[in-house]
Amino acid sequence: MEHFYLKVFRYDPTKDEQPYYKTYKLPVEKGMTVLAALFKVKETQDPSISFRYNCRAAICGSCSMKINGHGTLACKEQVTKLLEKYNTDTIVVEPIGNVKPLKDLIFDFDWLLEKFKQVKPWFIPKEPPPADGTEYRQDPYDHHKIDFASDCILCASCVSECNALKANKDYLSPFVLAKAYRFAADSRDGARRERLEAVLDHFNLEWCVRCWQCTTNCPKEVQPYESIIRLRIIAAEEGYKTPGERHAEIFEKDIKERGLLNEMLLPIRQEGVLGAVKRAPFGIKMFFKGKVNIADFFGGHKVKRHEEVEKIYEKAKEKEKEVKIRIPQILGVVYEDKRKTRKRANFLDKGGNE
Amino acid sequence: MAELKYAFYTGCSAKGVAPELYNSTYLVAEKLGMELIELEAATCCGAGAVQEKDEFLSLTINARNLALAEELGLDLLTICNTCTVMLRETKFKLDNDPELKKAVNEVLAEAGLEYKGTSEVTHFLWEVIDGVGLDKLKEMVVRPLKDFNIAPFYGCHIIRPVYLIGYEDPDNPKSIEMIIEALGGNPKDHEARLACCGFHSFWSAEDEVTLRLTAMDTEAAKEEKADFMVTPCPLCHTQLDAMQEEAEERIGTNIGMPILHLPQMIGLALGMNPEELGLQKHVISTENIINKITASV
């Protein structure tokens, strides 16, 4: 392919009533990034086009935009790879999703920064620094728990297709919650409850739909999803009663007592009698469609060999305190073909020191 | 051809609110020459909920599920996206962390079990493509779905996160479209193709998040004039089908988008009876599909 088309979202609120798309034809050059392509357009075809950029090396986080439907950094994506990946001759660039476009590819970041401030995204020490003048020390496992969440460059690529934010603009958004986690989980931090309350006040932990889109978009392998889930765990550990915790208790009890989840009795157990009344029309609808297993109303059947589960349950509970579960760190984005290659992840800390 | 024999992990939904998925999977698998040995001793995967409350317990419970497949010397086959990601996550963590694997095996030993890591976790969708093969599937079609515009709905956990799933590009998956084309149907691209159904946010967030997503997803398929949506996940199905009317009420429009399970769609093209496949068990009426399919013969 000698040429490709760069289809650019254009919008100038001082002139345009509606955004529109303008397409530019460019030669395909090996190694050219989408950001380089935008420069080429600006220099040779249309100086009016506006976009944010700075470092051109995936460090500053300025050039986040939606490229063929997915939020990412324009300086990190290569034209030839995209043309191949989407099997197309056209690359579509738009401002990231879920935010207000200001001009062309530039979007309103202030709105996100206001959310960001709420979780106090800075270190608030639990105690004064060591008297001997050394730095704050941290156990390697404690550091491991926050290491993956520390690399956020605030590019907001994760915001672009966040499903919870798409449904509700009050959602704090993934990178904000990742930052809340990074500090709330820091063994040296003294403002855990303040941060958790800022997050729980907005019911934001429950709004996450577990879609893993944020982690998929993140160009820096920050794993906002993992951070949100771990914030929920910390909230429960700190004694906050959340619906999530109640939900988890029901699942755990069902596994312990019968093996499979009793979906039919879940509403009444989750939400009490009021919940059951609210769900009654739904239950009746499901019953008449033949989707209800009557046995479930009487507790349901146990899976075979359930005695094994009981033994495992007891032993796991006894042992869990001594087990250190490591969080996979995603190193390097690799996707090639079918099941053979994955985005590599392993358990080594990024420095390679284990 | 390799023998298509799998340790079949049903998950809770197919045994609970989606019996039509359970039945249609067996019917279609048999027709496609897949032998399913049901893991009747398997437990719930925890669906992320148990993982939050007790990570180690959820790992050991799922290690047991995997060990049950290993006992049979077969790969474990799921029909639910969330079961897939949960079991693959367990496998990933245990296979990459010898200390954790040792700790888990010490617990499993109490019940006389061991996790070795010899069975893969795969999904019905992938096995139709890699096991059965699209050429063979195409040959078996007796009732091409040529009159149907079909909107694929992948559901999150069959494409993301790529380090656990990795079957295809999460930004541009094609597997469901490939199957639709093999069956002679017209895949319809739509806004919500890779979106979330909303199932996994909590009920307390129903008004704020869940039902809004359900409405957006089904409307996106309607905008492209799809006859139905198809999904490989029973949780997406429950959300998009059984909760669609509630979603309509909240947003005040009428959507009426039928949702089919993947095996149901395959079964229709293979000439099976819609009733046998359980199409009448859906909350959103599938009457138009049934009429069209019976008229096409």
UniProtKB/TrEMBL annotation, chain A:
Q: What is the lineage of its organism?
A: Bacteria, Pseudomonadati, Aquificota, Aquificia, Aquificales
Pathway in which this enzyme or protein is active: Carbohydrate metabolism; tricarboxylic acid cycle; fumarate from succinate (bacterial route): step 1/1
Q: Which InterPro entries match?
A: 2Fe-2S_ferredoxin-like_sf, 2Fe-2S_ferredoxin-type, 2Fe2S_fd_BS, 4Fe4S_Fe-S-bd, 4Fe4S_Fe_S_CS, Beta-grasp_dom_sf, Helical_ferredxn, SDH/FRD_Iron-Sulfur
Residue ranges spanning the membrane: these are none
Q: Where is the 2Fe-2S ferredoxin-type domain?
A: 4-99
Domain 4Fe-4S ferredoxin-type intervals: 199-228
- Share an example GO biological-process annotation for this protein: respiratory electron transport chain
Cofactor binding note from Swiss-Prot or TrEMBL: Binds 1 [4Fe-4S] cluster. Binds 1 [2Fe-2S] cluster.
EC class (word): oxidoreductase
Q: Which UniProt keywords apply?
A: 2Fe-2S, 3Fe-4S, 4Fe-4S, Iron, Iron-sulfur, Metal-binding, Oxidoreductase, Tricarboxylic acid cycle
The UniProt GO MF terms for this protein read: 2 iron, 2 sulfur cluster binding; 3 iron, 4 sulfur cluster binding; 4 iron, 4 sulfur cluster binding; electron transfer activity; metal ion binding; succinate dehydrogenase (quinone) activity
| E.C. number(s) listed in UniProt | 1.3.5.1
Q: Which Pfam families match?
A: Fer2_3, Fer4_8
Q: Which reaction does it catalyse?
A: a menaquinone + succinate = a menaquinol + fumarate
Protein name per Swiss-Prot or TrEMBL: Fumarate reductase iron-sulfur subunit
Q: Which family does it belong to?
A: Belongs to the succinate dehydrogenase/fumarate reductase iron-sulfur protein family.
Co-factor(s): [4Fe-4S] cluster; [2Fe-2S] cluster; [3Fe-4S] cluster
TrEMBL record, chain B:
Q: Which UniProt keywords apply?
A: Oxidoreductase
Please identify the protein, giving its name as recorded.
Answer: Succinate dehydrogenase / fumarate reductase cytochrome b subunit
> Boundaries of each Cysteine-rich domain copy?
6-88, 151-241
Instruction: Output the Gene3D superfamilies linked to this UniProt entry.
Output: 1.20.1050.140, 3.40.50.11810
UniProt xrefs under InterPro entries: Cys_rich_dom, HdrB/HdrD_reductase
- Please give one Pfam family short name: CCG
| Listed GO MF terms | oxidoreductase activity
Which species does the entry assign this protein to?
Hydrogenothermus marinus
Q: Which domain of life is it from?
A: Bacteria
